[in-house]
Please model this.
Amino acid sequence: MKRFTRAELRYYDGREGRPTYVAFGGKVYDVSSSFLWKGGRHQVLHSAGEDLTEALQEAPHGAELLERFPVVGELVEE
Model:
């Protein structure tokens, strides 16, 4: 499984044809197929290419929604 640093994850921001990846709980998910992440933004509050572990704690939904998407790697410390 691919290992991503935070710097590497930032590349996958969903812009200019790049895949849309987000991290949560140490896993990196490919949310490119979600219309809610179109253009690398979600609800104007969140950007792809970031670790959303803390942000998801305040979301109106739980982490179970991420389970619909493929895990493409793990987030590691730089």
Observations:
- The CA atoms of residues 2 and 73 lie 5 Å apart.
- The mean pLDDT is 90.
- Strands lie at 2-4, 21-24, 27-30, 41-42, 46-47, 71-75.
